[in-house]
Amino acid sequence: MAETLRVNPITCAGHGVCAELLPELVTLDEWGYPIVDPGPVPPALDRGARRAVAACPALALKLMRN
Amino acid sequence: MTTALNMPVPHESAPGGAARQPAGLPRLLPAAAEDLRAHLARYGPTPYRGQPGALVADVEASGLTGRGGAAFPVHRKLAAVARAGARQGRKVVVANGAESEPASRKDEVLLRVAPNLVLDGLQLVAETVGATEVHLYLHREPGPEILRALAERGVRGLDRLAVTITQAPPRFLAGQETAVVNRLSGGPALPTFQPPRVSERGLGGAPTLMQNAETLAHLALIARYGARWFRAVGTATEPGSMLTTIYRPRARPQVAEAAIGTPLRTLLGDGDGAGGPGAQAWLVGGYHGTWLPLPDAAGITLDNASLRRFGAAAGAGVLAALPSDRCGLAEVARVVGYLAAESAGQCGPCLNGLPRIAAGLAELAGRGHRRQTRADLERWSGLVEGRGACHHPDGTVRFVRSALTVFEPEIQRHARGQCSATDRAPFLPLPQGMPTSEEDWT
Amino acid sequence: MNTAFWYASRATGIVALLLLTAVLVLGILVNRQGRLPGLPRFAVTDIHRNLSLLSVAFIAVHVLTAVLDTYVHIPLISAVIPFASGYERLWLALGAVSLDIMLAMIVTSLFRGRLNRVLWRAVHLLAYASWPVAFAHCIGSSKDLQQGWMLGLAVGCAMIIAAAVVWRLAHAARQVPRAGRVAAVFSQRTVTR
Question: Does the beta carbon of A22 lie under 8 angstroms from any beta carbon of chain C?
Answer without folding.
Answer: no
